[in-house]
């Protein structure tokens, strides 16, 4: 009887909300309140009701942490007096408890519902984040390629993937702080906390809102930071940068000795080979840990032969035979071989064609991704060996900027305002996005107002098979803006 009453009231709420939405030509309805908070049955019934009565034209949406909305609103209103245009806000997933289950069978660590509220931790980011001005339609832009709340098979795979990688991440965190006596203890706490969050998501995929590969990666980074492991790959990155820098001049000499057609293919192949060196991919990290001799040339042999899984190379070469681009914005991925032997030779080629280059790197560390501060050191050392790069820096035809992100993925709706302004000032007409996190997990379907190159090596067997390929398949996607 109680369940029937609950269904009746929920359906009634859904029908009334649907009627009001139709009356005012609204396509979305947001629901909040204690009757709904943390009750999946209520949310499901209202969603079904809205969908049924509107014939799919109206969408029901629910707010996480809605019990805090008034407090957050009052806080943000007060914060307006503190130069709010100088920074942005971001949710910290490590401090967010999500939607706790009421059933001990579903989630054994549940809390008593009476008088409790879910936690919500907001980070005040140092810089203001805005849309990339080159997004074709910012209002319809969704960074994530797959919604794991709806794709059960993908969700099961990725949750298991992150669980299996957890022990290795914890070991890497300890190795980065061997001098710290409590490193092992903190790593164990990190491991337990992140594991608990993964179990919550197995039973309640919507517990932290939209569930994507990006949110899983960001949650892991937030948990590492909470237990004072801000950059577990710092020593690895420094070592790999030193090794790659020693090979830079040899790579440039080899490229310069080639004819134009061969050189263009070698440059692209170098970009792709460099992207293999991603410690976030288990297949790669296993190789790098077991074979210290695995390097740039070995990575080239791993690449899929043409035709690639996604292959727009011929269209790209045809475009290069036309007039040079005015300015290229490049979102880079990993430290070491990726940026030094893959990206910088390509930057050098673009500059030689007369194209200005904006090189965008993460503001903060994530996995072995290169950060803005690290890129400044790398480019200074490259400039000492390369007069073209040195001249471009001096004339500001090459500018290094930070993205405002500390994620292995890329949200083009939350970029550093300084980067956005520079993109406008330079009349940027080419965007290059490299790496699985930035070009596959996010932005694969992003539509831009200018030409774009999205390229990556698929370093995950399951994902490669799902896309119709094998591990180390290549995505080289050249796109022109829609008319």
Automatic annotation (TrEMBL):
This is 4'-phosphopantetheine phosphatase. It catalyses: (R)-4'-phospho-S-sulfopantetheine + H2O = (R)-S-sulfopantetheine + phosphate. It comes from Staurois parvus. Phosphatase which shows a preference for 4'-phosphopantetheine and its oxidatively damaged forms (sulfonate or S-sulfonate), providing strong indirect evidence that the phosphatase activity pre-empts damage in the coenzyme A (CoA) pathway. Hydrolyzing excess 4'-phosphopantetheine could constitute a directed overflow mechanism to prevent its oxidation to the S-sulfonate, sulfonate, or other forms. Hydrolyzing 4'-phosphopantetheine sulfonate or S-sulfonate would forestall their conversion to inactive forms of CoA and acyl carrier protein. Homodimer. Interacts with PKM. Residues 168-469 form the Damage-control phosphatase ARMT1-like metal-binding domain. Keywords: ATP-binding, Coenzyme A biosynthesis, Hydrolase, Manganese, Metal-binding, Nickel, Nitration, Nucleotide-binding. Its cofactor is Mn(2+); Ni(2+). InterPro entries: ARMT-1-like_metal-bd_sf, ARMT1-like_metal-bd, At2g17340_3_helix_bundle, ATPase_NBD, Type_II_PanK. It comes from the Eukaryota.
